[in-house]
Amino acid sequence: MAGHVLTPMTQIPMNQRRWMPVTIVLGTAADYALAFAPLCQVAGDVVVAFTVIPVAAAGWLLGPCIGLFAGLFWIPLNILNFTLVGQIGWEVVVLRRWQAVLVSLAAG
Question: Which string of DSSP letters, residue by residue, matches the chain?
Fold first, then answer.
């Protein structure tokens, strides 16, 4: 690990510290969006359960109101994602995998 040093949070300037949670949440959301199609081919409809990761990150790092908003935001986004990979998005998200939607809302 030569050349890698962990910096304490107190040494990071305040303006950078303010954007760190937002960056982490947007990074997890981007990872989910990029991994959705390959994971959908491997795991099928179960991939909707991975929505919990960006929603929980939003709720934990940005607060429960933002987490709830993120959980509600991912419902139409998952419908769109399933539609783009050739499935009936509404049927998958709302009728078949509604439990994962409830878990992601609770995690937020």
Answer: -TT--PPPGGGS-HHHHHHHHHHHHHHHHHHHHHHHHHHHHHHGGGGGGGGHHHHHHHHHHH-HHHHHHHHHHHHHHHHHHHHHTTS-HHIIIIIISHHHHHHHHHH-
Tens digits of per-residue pLDDT, 27-86?
988 998 888 888 888 887 788 888 888 888 888 888 888 888 888 888 888 888 888 888
Query: How far lies 16's CA from each of 7, 9, 40, 43, in Å?
Result: 13, 10, 35, 37
CA dist 83 and 45 (Å) reads 12
